[in-house]
From TrEMBL:
This is Copper(I)-binding protein. It holds the Pfam family PCuAC. Gene3D superfamilies: PCu(A)C copper chaperone (2.60.40.1890). It comes from the Bacteria. Keywords: Signal. Residues 1-19 form the signal peptide. SUPFAM superfamilies: DR1885-like metal-binding protein.
Amino acid sequence: MLSFSRRSFAVAVATAAVAAAGLAGCASDSSDAAPDSPAAGAGSTATEAGSAAGAGASAAAGAEAPGAALTVKDPWVKAVDSGMTAAFGTLVNTTSADVTVVSAATSVSPMELHEMAMDNGKMVMRPKEGGFLIKAGGTHELSPGGDHLMLMKPSAAIKPGDELTFTLTLADGGKVEFSAVAKPFAGAQESYAPSAAPSMAGM
């Protein structure tokens, strides 16, 4: 009986030892695998974040800035020591819809949109009724003797080489900002209508 008990006890101890070793192995496997899971999760999160950032960048790049429908090509300003002057250039509509410029502004002077027209047999400049319409995909010239952006009362002399910044407002509320350099120019002799307003010789 004693011999059987000892043999049974030895078998039990051996079995317990094998089970303990198996548990230790499982614990070791679990601890080794644990770091991989967060890392994999972090990689997935980083990929998702990168995808979201890329999508945001694409959306931002694809967004059209306000006023981008219209550009101003070759703008310039007539240099003057005093009195009224004007800005010129080519308005370019890059869209498939008509665009209308309804006003212009600059920090150095009040402004008006002007056209040239016959008045009592004489060519005069006057405010442009309804603004400047630029047809879809078309252009509109602002030139001496034609439509132009009028600086009514500059606060100081505008010398050759001076750079002025202008903002055009469109009928839909969009804004177009551009800069123009002043240069000397002697052009046609036109008067401002109504006749009570000052004339602008040399425009």
